[in-house]
């Protein structure tokens, strides 16, 4: 008996020694959350993620730091609505970069496997909303904190040591290597910022003008570009959430509701409503400039003037893993309110060519719709319309059968039930279906050009070699005039051009 107990105890000890991370849901993990997450590691991982999920993830540099590091932005999703998540404004808070990167990988894997993620439908959410991440806002600072002086030219070592109060240990460093705190740089109550250190220092120096650093310039420019509905700026530590800053009274109920949900999900404590004069933070600026919700969560328990240990990650991840998808869903709701009828017409290509028959397509409420008939016919289907059930059944000897019903989210592809991202609709006597359904029925890969919205189908066995490009798609050189939405059926494809509706 005693022996059994001992064996059991031994097994328990063994089990508890197995790291909980990388989590088992991912068959292979790209992001190693147990590592000291450096700029070089992040750069490699972003490239690998974009190669692994080429239809879902894009990335680009939104600026370069003084020491030539790229400030990477990573887009995850296919929607027109956007939210923005960032990390590592402060050098020593790089565990927030690990958190951003883990979200990207986990959500992309769930989307691709078409499985729910913590109760959220990753595919439905990311088809409608793009989550933009800047996982490391301050890569020079993170590098200084992690690698110390050796990562910087000898000519600046004495200046760095001076800004570090004479110490060669940079573990407490928060600023960028110019000694400016990137989260005291934004133009919101900057002039009256309290507790400022008047000279370049490892913390709390706001600079000599707002938005003077390359890091802050990049983030401000990028925020205007993606126009997010909600912003989240991850920091550490304290397990608290800042959620208000001179928030307009009319917006308080909206933001308070989200803040309460954020707090319930993470177990982080909400900070009191703020209308003090100390601003300059990213979410201070976002709230007062865009009048939209923004949150600064501080992950982890404070453990002195340094980075959180990587051992703190699994618990903070557990508390935050739903946040990106949840806020993407909330962001879409907010975006829909601002865009009540956001139909815009887009073009279609099959294997790089216009379809054999003129094919209209449009985006409505974040869903890409395309006229089903020309495409299914091009892929060898014969379609039958049942007026009594308002159902289309199309069959092809090569691909099988697809059937769907007007105004119903439920379709059948080869006998399997499929939930569509939008209901098939009839416009001017023509039936439109979510473009993804065409892809599911025909086996053609679907890619959506982010700039033009163009739907690009690639046949299962393409004539031309179709190697997925990891480069961001380029906008067309010539922008066509906005389409007349009343254009008659059967007009030439060239009249159904992309509109200039803003993204
Ligand atoms: Zn911070």
Automatic annotation (TrEMBL):
SMART domains xrefs: Zn_pept (SM00631)
Name of the protein in question: G-D-glutamyl-meso-diaminopimelate peptidase
Record's signal peptide: 1-25
Active site per the UniProt annotation: 298
Organism: Paenibacillus hunanensis
Cofactor: Zn(2+)
Region annotated Disordered, chain positions: 458-503
Keyword Isomerase on entry: no
CDD domains xref list: M14_Endopeptidase_I (cd06229)
EC number of the protein: 3.4.19.11
Top-rank taxon, per record: Bacteria
Residue ranges with Polar residues bias: 485-503
Entry keyword Zinc: yes
Sequence ranges assigned to domain Peptidase M14 in this UniProt record: 35-331
Family in the record: Belongs to the peptidase M14 family.
PANTHER family, per database record: PROTEASE FAMILY M14 CARBOXYPEPTIDASE A,B (PTHR11705), SLL0236 PROTEIN (PTHR11705:SF143)
A GO molecular function held by the record: hydrolase activity
Keyword annotations: Hydrolase, Metalloprotease, Protease, Signal, Zinc
Pfam families for this protein: Cu_amine_oxidN1, Peptidase_M14
Bias type Pro residues, positions: 473-484
Coiled coil: none
UniProt-listed PROSITE patterns: PEPTIDASE_M14
């Amino acid at each position: 008996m005693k022996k059994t107990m001992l064996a059991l105890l031994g097994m328990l000890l063994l089990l508890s020694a197995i790291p909980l991370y990388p989590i088992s849901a991912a068959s292979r993990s790209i992001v190693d959350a147990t590592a000291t997450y450096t700029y070089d590691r992040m750069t490699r991982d972003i490239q690998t993620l974009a190669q692994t999920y080429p239809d879902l993830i894009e990335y680009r540099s939104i600026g370069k730091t003084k020491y030539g590091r790229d400030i990477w932005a990573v887009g995850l999703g296919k929607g027109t609505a956007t939210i923005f998540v960032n990390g590592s404004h402060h050098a020593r808070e790089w565990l927030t970069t690990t958190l951003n990167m883990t979200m990207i990988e986990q959500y992309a894997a769930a989307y691709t496997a078409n499985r729910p993620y913590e109760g959220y439908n990753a595919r439905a959410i990311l088809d409608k909303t793009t989550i933009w991440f800047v996982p490391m806002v301050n890569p020079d600072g993170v590098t200084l904190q992690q690698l110390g002086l050796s990562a910087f030219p000898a000519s600046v070592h004495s200046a760095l040591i001076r800004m570090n109060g004479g110490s060669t240990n940079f573990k407490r460093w928060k600023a960028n290597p110019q000694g400016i705190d990137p989260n005291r740089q934004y133009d919101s109550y900057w002039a009256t910022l309290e507790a400022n250190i008047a000279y370049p220092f490892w913390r709390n120096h706001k600079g000599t003008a707002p938005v003077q650093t390359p890091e802050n310039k990049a983030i401000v420019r990028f925020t205007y570009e993606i126009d997010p509905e909600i912003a989240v700026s991850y920091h550490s530590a304290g397990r608290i959430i800042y959620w208000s800053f001179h928030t307009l009274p009319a917006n308080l109920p909206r933001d308070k509701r989200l803040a309460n949900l954020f707090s319930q999900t993470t177990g982080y404590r909400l900070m009191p409503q703020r209308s003090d004069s100390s601003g300059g933070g990213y979410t201070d600026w976002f709230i007062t400039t865009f009048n939209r919700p923004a949150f600064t969560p501080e992950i982890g328990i404070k453990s002195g003037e340094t980075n959180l240990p990587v051992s703190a990650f699994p618990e903070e991840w557990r508390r935050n893993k739903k946040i990106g998808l949840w806020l993407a869903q909330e962001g879409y709701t907010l975006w829909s309110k601002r865009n009540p009828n956001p139909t815009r017409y887009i073009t279609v290509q099959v294997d790089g060519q216009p379809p054999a028959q003129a094919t209209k397509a449009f985006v409505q409420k974040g869903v890409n719709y395309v006229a089903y008939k020309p495409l299914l016919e091009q892929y060898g289907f014969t379609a039958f319309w049942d007026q009594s059930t308002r159902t289309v059944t199309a069959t092809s000897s090569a691909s099988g059968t697809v059937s769907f019903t007007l105004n119903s989210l439920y379709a059948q592809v080869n006998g399997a039930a499929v939930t569509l991202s939008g209901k098939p609709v009839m416009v001017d006597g023509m039936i439109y279906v979510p473009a993804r359904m065409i892809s599911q029925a025909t086996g053609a890969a679907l890619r959506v050009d982010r700039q033009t919205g163009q739907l690009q189908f690639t046949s299962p066995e393409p004539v031309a070699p179709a190697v997925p490009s990891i480069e961001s798609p380029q906008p067309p050189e010539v922008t066509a005039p906005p389409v007349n939405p009343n254009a008659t059926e059967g007009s030439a494809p060239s009249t159904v051009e992309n509109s200039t509706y803003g993204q």
